[in-house]
Amino acid sequence: NVKQYSGITDADAAKLAATKLVDSTHHGAMWYRIGAVRRFTGGKQIEPILEDHLKQVYDVIKKNGEIGYDTLNHMLPTFSQNEETKYAVLEFHAPTIAVKENIGKFPVTIWRHGNLNTKATVRVDSINGTAKEGEDFVKVKEVVEFKENEEEKEIFIELIDDNKWEPDEEFFLRMSVVHHKDLPVKLGSISIMEVTIIDNDEPGIISFGKRGLLVKESTGFVEVPIVRTHGSDSEVSVKWKTIDESAISGRDYIGGEGEIIFKDKEVAKILRIEIINDLCPEKDECFEIKLFETTGGAKIGNINRIAITISSDDDFDSVVDRLMLLTNINIHALELHRQTWAEQIKTAMTVNGGDLNKLKLR
């Protein structure tokens, strides 16, 4: 009797039962390989995960030779051939099932075998696990009736999509017999099913929009773009902090650390850092900003650091002037391709392209 152990709730008992059912099922080599890979990569486990206190209870149960049970404190039945033909045996089609949170409603199959020449009735109830009734799924309290010769019935379970990232959660379905003197019905070995809700929300990846920015010292501030890609579900946040290089916080800029919050569906934010203009000619100076520690399931992207270069006004202007000059030269070079073939031939055959004012004689 599972409930003889102190502190065991219905949810704990259901999880212990599901573990026992999985352990007692024959598995091939591929099942163990998949389990090993998922444990190594942190993926969804293919068997129930027991907390430490439940592991101790489970070890005691195995040691004492208890081979099956349900949350009603009854040992799970085994049937002789005569009993198999006498009773209608009802059970779930599998001990565990995993579904995505946004599935809405999904079917669960109840399988009937043994005596098919009679009606049969069974009750299905939900039990909270880490997933909670009313928050993650709609409460199940259903009576299922089989007619003569019916072997399968489906019930539909409804999940609640809360549009909020959260780790995978589970709850349980428990089957119990609706007793009737004229209906010889018993439960099979899979009278408890673990339902795992796989979170479908994509909180996204947060990173800087660029690896570096050049800012004029007299501008007074720099606006740093932070972007959220590959998903924008739910509210997430990321922390940031400045790192001194040749530019020093408090002397060349106002640094520090803080937190950027993306609300549901927001994909871009601007971090504004104040630049101190000391009015003194100096070389270019640089500092960095780093992203770290997200919440809400978001991840940090590859561009998690950005270099901010502070240029003095004269240096900045000279850089801009050089860029404009190079741009104009390139644009002028393209003018040749705007001429017709006849104009290009005429220009090539004319001294200095026809510009005699700039002609130099040697």
From TrEMBL:
Keyword terms: Calcium, Ion transport, Repeat, Signal, Transport
SUPFAM superfamilies per UniProt: CalX-like
GO molecular function list: calcium:sodium antiporter activity
InterPro entries: CaCA (IPR051171), CalX-like_sf (IPR038081), Calx_beta (IPR003644)
Limits of the Calx-beta domain: 78-176, 193-292
GO annotation terms (biological process): calcium ion import across plasma membrane; cell communication
Keyword Calcium carried by entry: yes
Keyword Aminoacyl-tRNA synthetase attached: no
GO cellular component terms, A-Z: axon; postsynapse; sarcolemma
Transmembrane intervals: none
SMART domains in UniProt: Calx_beta
This protein's name: Sodium/calcium exchanger 2
Lineage: Eukaryota, Metazoa, Ecdysozoa, Arthropoda, Hexapoda
